[in-house]
Amino acid sequence: xxVNKNYKNLNESYLFSNIAKKVNDFALKNSDMEIIKxxxxxxxxxxxxxxxxxxxxxxxxxxxxxxxxxxxxxQGYDFLKTSIQNYYxxxxxxxxxxxxxISDGAKSxxxxxxxxxxxxxxxxxxxxxxxxxxxxxxxxxxxxIFIDANEENEFLPLPNEKIKADLIYICSPxxxxxxxxxxxxxxxxxxxxLKNNSIILFDSAYESFIxxxxxxxxxxxxxxxxxxxxxxxSFSKTAGFTGTRCGYTIVPKELVFDNMSLNxxxxxxxxxxxxxxxxxxxxxxxxxxxxEGQKQIHENLNYYxxxxxxxxxxxxxxxxxxxxxxxxxxxxxxxxxxxxxxxFFDLLLNKIGVVGTPGSGFGKNGENWFRLTSFNTLEKTQExxxxxxxxxx
Length: 393
Ligand code: MLT
Hints:
This protein is of the alpha/beta class and 393 residues long. It has helices at residues 15-29, 49-62, 78-89, 106-112, 131-139, 183-196, 236-239, 262-273, 279-287, 291-317, 341-352, 378-392; strands spanning 36-37, 100-103, 122-127, 143-148, 167-171, 199-203, 229-234, 247-250, 256-257, 260-261, 322-324, 330-334, 354-355, 357-358, 369-373.
């Protein structure tokens, strides 16, 4: 028996588990300090009433013989897929129902999709980046090419014809930097992928934070994208499903390589390795798209957007450089006095009990940068930023 030795190349623990452990250790020793977490992008508002009502109704259905559900379709119920299909019509994107696959969240699918691709493919990831893209490819022993996302390119790198890559990860609005590609920039990536026979893995988990109607919310708003892109999305940040778990992946039928349809391969993979998302959770997710549901989730999204303003307003007052905060729940700031990211993390935790995420945890270009999220409560965000202001003024 040989173990997968690629695991040796991974960091000892996943970034957010590592931070959680550090914070817990600190909390045990400093019980008098109220710790405010603006670190992991986890939501704080409860599920909205339309979703709760749908959940209750679905639970009641499970209690009656006539409406009880056993195994569902591995790729999701049509009622939810139809709601998603209609939602995409808002961006003038037309999808077939069998191009939509319901999952338990974008993170799992972003890892699982790699089953479809040869190990010898190279993959291109921006640096800094959501660690899941890197770690899942490292586990598979795949070659990773990093491209720089930095101040010079406003954290929005564009393709370089000299670099050839088979799989390309793009997250827009970006985690961690909050930067958002416009249509012209995304078109450059689509053209590159079409020319080089590459696949774009497009993570749109934060699309619902986009306020600017000129910015693309789906890669399929870009001509040609259906021939080169798979899109991953999630209800986690849009509707507070981080603990409830539901997302979806779009695999267009046009994606045929070596006479093999990626859509059919993904269906085959899911029907073999996945038994679907619970019926009650899919009912809850479908409620997100009702008129009431949309109104209520937008109230929640506006609440987080208000928090982002509290954070960016404080940074403005302190003349600290940052990206994001607009069209994104993340604020990516330059550590004052060019401090190292982990030193800055320790300083904030020790002096003011505020937790963020060190930029270097997302890659080498994240060094000297730091990520704050707008997902805590307004009161705690205000309190955290008041402490922050007093520390740096
Ligand atoms: C983050 O903080 O980057 C996100 O919560 C991670 C995730 O969605 O898995």
